[in-house]
Automatic annotation (TrEMBL):
Keyword Metal-binding annotated: yes
Start and end residues of each Aminopeptidase N-like N-terminal domain: 104-193
Chain ranges of the Peptidase M1 membrane alanine aminopeptidase domain: 233-446
Reaction catalysed by this enzyme: Release of an N-terminal amino acid, Xaa-|-Yaa- from a peptide, amide or arylamide. Xaa is preferably Ala, but may be most amino acids including Pro (slow action). When a terminal hydrophobic residue is followed by a prolyl residue, the two may be released as an intact Xaa-Pro dipeptide
One MF term in the entry's GO annotations: alanyl aminopeptidase activity
Cofactor section: Zn(2+)
Record InterPro entries: Aminopeptidase_N-like_N (IPR045357), Aminopeptidase_N-like_N_sf (IPR042097), PepN_Ig-like_sf (IPR038438), Peptidase_M1 (IPR001930), Peptidase_M1_dom (IPR014782), Peptidase_M1_pepN (IPR012779), Peptidase_M1_pepN_C (IPR024601), Peptidase_M1_pepN_C_sf (IPR037144)
Protein name, UniProt field: Aminopeptidase N
Amino acid sequence: MRTEQPKMIYLKDYQAPDYLIDETHLTFELFEDHTLVHAQLVMRRNPACAAGGLPALVLDGQELELLSLSLDGETLAAGDYQLDASHLSLQPKSASFVIDSSVRIHPERNTALEGLYKSGSMFCTQCEAEGFRKITYYLDRPDVMSKFTTTLSAEQHSYPVLLSNGNPIASGPEEGGRHWATWQDPFMKPAYLFALVAGDLWCVEDSFTTMSAREVALRIYVEPENIDKCQHAMDSLKKSMQWDEQVYGREYDLDIFMIVAVNDFNMGAMENKGLNIFNSSCVLAKAETATDAAHQRVEAVVAHEYFHNWSGNRVTCRDWFQLSLKEGFTVFRDAEFSADMNSRTVKRIEDVAYLRTHQFAEDAGPMAHPVRPEAFMEISNFYTLTVYEKGSEVVRMIRTLVGAEGFRRGSDLYFERHDGQAVTCDDFIKAMEDANGVDLSQFKRWYSQGGTPRLAVSEAYDGAAKTYSLTFKQSCPATPGQRDKQPFVIPVELGLLGAQGQALPLRLQGEAAAGAASRVISITEAEQVVTFVDVAEQPLPSLLRGFSAPVKLSFPYSRDQLMFLMQHDADGFNRWEAGQQLSVQVLQELVGQYQRGETLQLDQRLVGALRSVLENASLDQAMVAELLSLPGEAYLSEISEVADVDAIHGAREFARKQLADALFDLLWQRYQANRELSRRTAYLAEAEHFARRSLQNIALSYLMLSGKPEVLAACLEQLEACDNMTERLAAVAVLVNSPFEEEKAKALASFADFFKDNPLVMDQWFSVQAACSLPGALARVQQLMEHPAFTLKNPNKVRALIGAFAGQNPVNFHQVDGSGYRFLADQVIALNALNPQIAARLLGPLTRWGKYDDTRQALMKAELERILASGELSSDVFEVVSKSLA
Ligand code: ZN
């Protein structure tokens, strides 16, 4: 807990470390009621620092009980060093020296899940970003890189498996039923990549032969009952290794690569060198217990952490302000990997929908920050959608600007130039510039300016001159600490469609001949006119194809024009986007009617558009499913000036019911055909199967709105006869949201009875109920908190129940009596003492108060005030609450 007001750390204050740690020798003696950590640090003055005297050495350390300390073998007495709550300082006598320290720590009491802690019966670590200082006194900063040797000792029977980074070099028994093992990591690394694991684990083994014919042992360690759920992760790992060789020329560098699955983990997974530690939700997957979405998440996270071996580990960050250097780049890499493994267009649609709903909301709220933040109190609060997802969009724009080959030249140069170094986002950009002979200085504003740019586009066609002009006006709203923004470089991929839907040739004014029919125009000015010549007819523009920049684009399309683009646009993403824009227009009209108390009237053009989608047998089924998915309530809130959750929910549900009635026969055919295929073929975690199940399940969710007995029967048949969690959970979810009380209760009870021993499946069971938009959700959630499978100490449980209620159930969370807000604040206060990182993340929905009406704003702010006044706050929660109220 915080003992003093947390202070701001600024990027502009960065200073290179005074001392370096060439070698780190660690010994862990793990016991049930404490752990002893001995650290020997071989240190020297940083030669890069100005000459002169020897400054004091200030090591980071928190919650450590210092047992002994020596300098060059001489034990130090109490007066020879200074200790405060987070540092140990001493005065070195020479430029090279060795520090030995012994500390006692308590992993068995660590509920924050940072540093060394216990997940169930196993010991594990999480050191990123600043967790290593809770293990031993150290220079806990990413620009101090060291060669680590780690010895662990533990009781043999309970902890037969002892792991750390790198290669195993020795092991043996000890007296008293204990044993030990030593691991050595030949690569220099910062402390945040350190890891150890001790437990009773089984492993699935495989191997991979690298491009230079080296054999790498692959091991996935899990608790014995999960050994049957590792194959998908192993397949994903091998695909990732192959892909990184092919697409980036990157080979794995150790002889062994290990993944360990743990149940208690704050985030998705962690890329510790050679020893990735994963939230079990991102490793374990088999048909019977994990949905298609979970399978895809496992594939993506395994790839993400594996890709970090180069983008993050071999080349790491100089300081935490540079976090997007590794995270934005690695998200971009895993997104491209997933696009190559599955459907590229569907992956892009999912990512863009997620970015626009959640990152845009973050960018419009009190915690908004640039991709490279300039200040923070608590770095854990900056593992954000902006750093990760917008950071990935920024890397994508660089590739769009320099082309795929130029991007590969740039990444080759980056890895070659900076291998073994801790670098900055500027170094990444410089490599891209040098490899391509381009100037990205204006482009770099994407790293330094926060907020989502708007790009308003208008057109003018001159039939006599055959010219067509598009006027682009960009602007960017103020964000905390940043009022005036300079123009961004916005790459706009576009095409022009003729009256028959054909692609028109694109010749810019001043060009000798037409170029490609889809091309990228860079918008660099606040206002910029782009003129095409030889335009034989009035065209319809297709703008921002593939979502080529993370901006809010507006163009005055009519609904008929959007329907035309849905049919004819050559870009698959933009066909979907036209459908979304049409739905948004129609839904916003219904929201207006709802607010005015009028009878709701659905624009029948939306029915017609979706009918053509369903009738089109040549469309990819996953695309049909995406096109049928109306924009979510959270997205509709994000794009509203003032989000009226009741009107949005009412309007969207009305539209869904109208669509279900009007398209019943087509939906029923699609449902039955796909359910029949599911019945006849075994489950496969492959794009074609994902596609057909997603269409089957969205069709079912529409069909259930009809209330017809044959649909209920079909739903129950799917629930009882299916062989996989994708169909099972979808059936449960539609029942939970239906009026069939008896069937609902029975389905929930038998699901829980069957899966009570599988925590990941129970998470799904909690979520489905927490997200149910019918009345009474809060009472249900409160009751579920008493369920034996629930605990506040497990982050997955917190996210599944409390997170799903606050984030995915707007009508219930935003109840105008404030009960949802009060409940969330109570949970944040309780979690603040247990797990500050999770407490701060859970706060997200309360920080968005600016979106709602005055009554709700006041209620939300009152709860933030109550949290602020509740006592000793962690720096994590304090930063979010104080910024939200500022
Ligand atoms: Zn990452």
